[in-house]
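Archive record
______________

***
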Amino acid sequence: MNTFQQSAEEQPHGDGDAEPQRRPRERSIFSRRGFLAGAGLVGVTAVATASYAGHDAISGALTRVAGHPGGASSSGSTLSGAAAPASSKPPGPAAPPDRTFVSTQLTAAHVSSWATAATAAGLIFAGPQGHGSSGLIVDNHGEPLWMEPTGVGVTDLRVQTFEGKPVLTFWTGTGTGGHGLGSGRILDTSYQSVAEVNAGNGLKADLHEFTLTEAGTALMIAYPTVPYDLRPVGGPANGFIYDCHVQEIDVRSGAVLLDWSAVAHIDITETYVHPGDNNASADGTTQAKAFDPFHLNSVDESGDALLISSRHTHALYLVDRTAGTIRWRLGGKQSDFNVADNAAFAWQHDARRRSATSLTVFDNHYSEGSTGISRGLLLNVDESARTVTLQQEFSHAGHRGNAEGNVQLLDNGHYLVGWGADPAVTEFTPDGTALYESIGLGNASYRTYRCAWTGRPASLPDVAVLPGNGSSMQVYASWNGATEVASWRFLTGATPESLTPAGTVPRRGFETSTAVAVAAKVAVQALRSDGSVLATSTAVST
């Protein structure tokens, strides 16, 4: 295991020139400490368990819901070929009501979408906070395909590759103080657990990063609290900070292969925040009020190095994977690069190597009071000349995410930008033209992705029945996570053994319903586009 401490060969940069003028602060909708708590990650397990407990055990058991209006489920989309709207934010201060269904207790954020041209292939993977399931897969119309069924807090939901197979991955745990305490989860295409990955050396995995590598390892971040002299940044001598760690964990064995400490390599005077800045709960006076000088939020492979993003120093660090030394700093107070004015970023997230000479980063650009809009950036990085220039900017409709956010390069050359605390995601052509957007991703979505995914759940489809006009009944069908369903066959009969087809209808969104003649028992079959049966539900009594 590589455990990196500060070496004689690599002392942190000194104070250098005078600190750049700090941006004025003003009131913001979200604060770093309050953001995740307000978004519903803190305590979400306890709340959601009451709603979702026993879902798998009672799959198909719901037969009547008092007061439900009946009829087919309506889509939450407004996808069309019309021109992109001038503003992509939902009208009014409140988000639309959560989506609810008859055949399942699961709920989802009410996502709507628009498009002006063909998008890249794949589904949208989001982590809506504060509205419905915090792990959500939707199609281009905003229609749910999978809602995380247990109610746990979820961030960084996406498709990755593990041991040569596509897997669904996410971080889950409790958000606290702008970071998290939890673990990484890996599920197969039937949504069964492949592995749970924990940070090592007594640490808890943070919510900001869970990236799998081709070597069968996971890159993760942790936020341990340590005592530290904060006088250089205006805090107490006997203070406390979050010493962000980057770890590489072997997924199968849990072995810690790398453990890199930020405070051992980065001087806290590089930070752009100070203890207690408009927030007494982060003044560093106690462990419970630890100061966060670095706020690491992404780590990416870069050959024999790691590219690390530190939000609070406005900088990216290229770290030698073997020695742990910092090869260069990009941005911030001690940048080793001459960064063009239009390529400069602040409070950033999600730095990713795209080639030997380029990288992407989400430029939040503002925090609690600074001005400007957020942007996805594609930067040209000349390591020999030590220059950084802007290749392309991705911005749209004044989106401003003061926290979170990401940039994804898609297989067809498009770019997807998740706006983080501004709960939307936009797809762009390589020249920066917006062609698709989904809005209404809860109160926020830490990162949002577009990924190819074929899901065939191990569970059976759900079915529910509501009374009709006396001679008919309304039957509802859904199958959480199934991506191959083209139509539903409804079966009725006097007993489970005597069921016969009562009708077949095309799939209409997450939940499909139809009216059939009254019968004592009902079940549904999920059909592929060729008419073959994917699965049959349990028969329920009407």
In short: The chain is about 5% helix and 40% strand. The two ends are 60 Å apart (CA to CA). Confidence is low (pLDDT under 50) at residues 6-93.
